[in-house]
Amino acid sequence: MEYTHHIYRDAFRDCSKPVLFQCLVVTTIIFPLFIVYTFGVYISTAISLSRLARHNFNGNSADASGANLGPALHVLYLLALVQGVLHTYGVAFILTRHKVVSRVTEEYAVIKSVHRYAAQIWAKCWQDPSSVRGRNLATHAVELMESASVYDYAFHDGVRIVDALIQRSIYSQHQQQHAVIRQILIRSTSSSHILGKLMEAMSWYDDDGSKDGKDMGERAARIVDHFATDIRLNNLPEGIEYISSMIQLSADTRSKDMLLQGLKILRSLAAHNDNCRVMSDTEGLVSRIMAIVSSDLLHSVHHDAWSSVALASMKLVRRLVTAPGVTGANLRREISSNGQAMTSMESILECNECQPPLRKLAIKILTQLAMDASSSMSVEKLAKSLVRIFTDGRIRKSALEALAMLCAKSKGNAVVILQADRNVVVGVLKELLLHSEEIESRISAAEILTHLRINYTEDDEYLVELKKAINDVIPEVLREVLRSGVTGKEIQKGPEADKDRFSPPGTVDIEGQDSNSINTNSSSRPRNDGQHGDVKLMAAFLYLIATIFEISKAKDLVQLADAVAPGDAAFTFAGKLKEMIERSASLDGYHKNNAHQLRIMKLITKMVISMVRNRGSSYTKEDEDLDRLMEYLCDASRAMYDIDGVMSIAGNDHGAKPPFKTLASLVKEARELWDKKKAQASSVNVNLNT
């Protein structure tokens, strides 16, 4: 044992000597050389700077050689200092370059592409600095896509960079780059060439053999989708074929992502009518678009499995059925003739397991088809379906809007809607109008009741029930309209203020008001839809009121006034209407010259015409109120003259409501009728006096 210990000790001594020698060499020779080699320039710069600061290069020597040594050392130190400064600047420049490249690669996640771009710019700048003027990452990327082959890595670099740039284009600092890309890709002479390459690259989206190919296809598809609204398919003959190949159903699970992207691109392209025409002319494309809906995958498997694809497909169909002109008519006819797809959408409409967005889209698509005379969609079948489902709170708004459009379209639709489901419609509409918490539902309910009253002309029990429901709601609706226009701060408290308390819906506490006060249960519900919603609601209510005024007789209006303000002898419709519109005009945020306010003024003018026609020959307080209201309407028609003309030309009601005359012509008609009535009353009074 002791012998073994001696052997290890001698071996350690023999090995420790070379190790110690190596450490000595490293510390005394190699390490100093490393310091000098690495930091030699900085050391010489520091020494030179120090010596130049002292101004004493040769001590006290007075001989000739010493006199010449000073200037020589001065020049030497200056050269060393300049060398150090230049070296430091170069190192700093290189570090800054790497830092900038690192930040760009970190932000855009395209490391290799940005490094290659930086290397090219560096090389060109050394050769000719003017050659890089006006160049940036965006121009570099587009040039790569334009010049390189689709299979070249340079083209791939360009696609990666452009894709990264457009993903960041929502930020303001990237808008210039985005504008450059749009200018070159869409508006340059080479745009068709570049877009053709991108669409060819999209065909790699479902490439089984290459992960890079699939990635390139995804990036190319995102670029095309981003600029799709500016693309015209008639300039890209093969473009529609590349895109339509993306929306073919297959057993491959990866095709679902490709299908979604293809539908999204087509939806963006469909924003332009020329592209819709190309889609309509492409054989089999519409059938492919509707394949997911026609296949009924939603109901045969779990609903959530294909909901996203079905939603994308129906969004595209929704855009196609709203296309204008001959193209839109052809598309609607082709879509409505696809019986399997129509049946599937009808099943979506009434399926409680389908997501509400899908059901809402089905309502809009089917309604649009039903409104088109060239389509084969059954209006009666759709109307009955809408009546069955419009009490479902998840899709009530869309169903009510569709019913309002159908009801306004024709008398036949009004008959179908009113007689559907054993006349339950009227009762539900009445309940929604008076008590719904949703402004949109109240608006649609008011419009449906109005159109039913206008278009339903059968003298039967359904009409009797409709009249009864409208007679029940009109006093409440009138109270709410006449109370609009006062903020909560202006509402007074106490019995003395009850008589003339008017406020918009939701600002009045009706508790404590006596039976002679003008009150409404509907105005006590909370309102959080904003003043814009209140204005639209007022317009819908006035549309209903104006319709009833137009078909009412003088005694009916007297009874209605008694129902609105029982026991108030001073109450007149003209006076309260003038007060209401004056209060509305004084509210903060009130915009007098807009479409909704213009429509309100037109409806009030129509009410005035009805009141004047039913005016008796004797003088009443309402005559003074009518005079003041007429003057106000004349001033309003002059103030709204410009927007009145524009909206009349544009047809702001989009065919959903009967066309109105201009406000100026309505006011003129009311004024002439009023002057004629006053002249007749004066002649009657003269005859009585004589």
From TrEMBL:
<keyword id="KW-1133">Transmembrane helix</keyword>
<dbReference type="InterPro" id="IPR011989">
    <property type="entry name" value="ARM-like"/>
</dbReference>
<keyword id="KW-0472">Membrane</keyword>
<feature type="region of interest" description="Disordered">
    <location>
        <begin position="489"/>
        <end position="531"/>
    </location>
</feature>
<protein>
    <submittedName>
        <fullName>Uncharacterized protein</fullName>
    </submittedName>
</protein>
<feature type="transmembrane region" description="Helical">
    <location>
        <begin position="20"/>
        <end position="43"/>
    </location>
</feature>
<keyword id="KW-0812">Transmembrane</keyword>
<dbReference type="InterPro" id="IPR016024">
    <property type="entry name" value="ARM-type_fold"/>
</dbReference>
<feature type="compositionally biased region" description="Polar residues">
    <location>
        <begin position="513"/>
        <end position="525"/>
    </location>
</feature>
<feature type="compositionally biased region" description="Basic and acidic residues">
    <location>
        <begin position="490"/>
        <end position="502"/>
    </location>
</feature>
